[in-house]
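Here is a tokenized protein:
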Amino acid sequence: MHNTITYRHWQPGDDDAVLELLVPAEQVDENIYRNKFESSHIEAEGIRLALLNERVVGHVWGEPRSFYTEDKFQRFIIVGAVYVNTDMRRQGIATRLMQELHAHFQKAGYRGSILDVDTEEAIRLYQKVGYQKFTQELQTQLLPNSNVSQLKWTEVNLKDLSAFPQLDERWAKHNFPVEWNSQGMKVHQDNMSGYRVLRHGQKIIGYTRWEEPSGYYPHGLIQDPIVPEMDSIEVIASVQAAIPAPRAWQTCEGSKYEFPLRSLGCILQQGKMVYMVASFGQEIDLSDMHRTVW
């Protein structure tokens, strides 16, 4: 059948045809895509393609991650680079690609899939293949406060990095989704300038992404701090004591910080980004988990 769309996983030699689809649409960086098997745990069968003759007209991939749910760390996939050529849409191609991706990872024993979207059209697409919204981005402005805090935010030193995985592990047990990789480092020498650590005396008790004001972040950016054993109001107060001017604070619906921020008079506005999860098999129980930015 000359015009039949075929579906399969990635094979050696596919990159040029895939990049003809994805690069003009600004879906991937060419160098990163060509080196995808070196820089992550992506596997060939986790990349699904739709082809019309020899032309790639649809693409999706799933990148394995581990998250804590149902009292243990379980394998999930993060879905990315979902794209169908504009002249081939509304034919069920994206739905079929997602179904094949899910089938592969479910057979391999994965618990579910997570993705983020920023349009109503995308939300409707993913709902068709079993996704449900579990949170949405919220932003506010936090005002400085000169009250003295016993907790101090400082720049990250190389020797601090070893404390981060343990903080992530403890945070993950009560907040979702927190990536867990005992072999990898989310914060490292190349990006640590964009983070701060929270100290109680000499002890590191937390950390967060902390961007100073810039052209990209006019009001700076602070994400929900990862501080497993500290009251949220105290953590917020420590940030207020550390900032000289208002700062943008990024959180999400259902986070540990949402209602404490509201109680302090902060106005939280919904962002565009919606986060969705699909279970492979029995529905995932997140009833006892706070949500967290990721």
About this structure: The radius of gyration is 21 Å. The domain at 5-130 is CATH 3.40.630.30 (Aminopeptidase). The chain has a mean pLDDT of 94. The first strand starts at residue 5 and ends at 9.
